[in-house]
Amino acid sequence: MAIEVRIPTILRSYTDGAKAVTAQGATLEELIGDLDSRHPGLKDRLVDESGLRRFVNVYLNDEDVRFLGGLGTPVADGDTVTVLPAVAGGAR
Amino acid sequence: MLTISRELVDKIVAHARADHPDEACGVVAGPAGSDRPERFIPMENAERSPTFYRFDSMEQFRVWREMDERDEVPVVIYHSHTATEAYPSRTDISYASEPDAHYVLVSTASEDETPFRSYRIVDGVVTEEEVKIVESYG
Predict the structure, then answer these.
(1) pLDDT for A1
(2) Who is most buried in A41, A70, A74, B46, counting CB within 10 A?
(3) Inter-chain contact A88–B81, Cβ cutoff 8 Å?
(4) Does B59 touch chain A (CB under 8 A)?
């Protein structure tokens, strides 16, 4: 069982520079837990106590997981999970 | 230093003017490792706000994947401030997430001129850089 996770530039310090790594799990939450055991510190950059961090986008294949089931979204072998930091800001 | 063609500067300014008083935002992609902005990609501001911008998450996904397939990176990430100066706000700094990008800010606060400035934002530290506008990259 392996799910590919694509890592953005800013988080590659956790993956020794790798653009993509693999992890396992039945849900996104489990996947992130497994990811953190292989690349300690990564989980903290993706989730906080209320769930997925507001300015981190996580996609399962071609869909934003916010439109699926958030951290409870089921994942399966062969899926690709993509992490992208939101591009945001403003004068406020 | 950011070296950018006049044509791209004009496109960014035109986008900012068109969306005023809301903030406009977008990307200029370029070949990985070149530091040369080439492909203008105006993005939708999902917030449609005069004080905030955020790329639409699905549009960002498509654009980032396309850049990946073309071996491009976001050389420039631009947005406008519509009532304040072209300097990164605290919000801009805390959400800056592309350490290799030139963060371009334009201000449409004045009708007469559109300041165009560029910054590096790495680990919460802002460094303004010179902008060199060229007719072509020769």
Answers:
(1) 58
(2) B46
(3) no
(4) no
Q: Is A15 on the interface with B (CB under 8 A)?
A: no
Residue A35 lies in a domain: yes
Express each pLDDT in A7-40 by its tens digit: 998 999 999 999 999 999 999 999 999 999 999 9
State which H helix or E strand residue B4 sits in. Answer: strand B2-5
Cβ–Cβ under 8 Å, residues B76 and B131: no
Residue B58, phi then psi, degrees to nearest 5: -75, -35
Tell me whether A17 touches chain B (CB under 8 Å): no
Range of the domain at B64: 2-134
Q: Is the pLDDT reported for residue B33 higher than 80?
A: yes
Say yes or no: A45 contacts chain B, CB-CB below 8 A. no
The residue of A12, A54, A87 whose CB has the most chain B CBs within 10 angstroms, and thus the best one to mutate to test that interface, is A87
- Global ipTM: 0.91
What's the average model confidence in pLDDT over B81-110?
Answer: 95
Domain count, chain B: 1
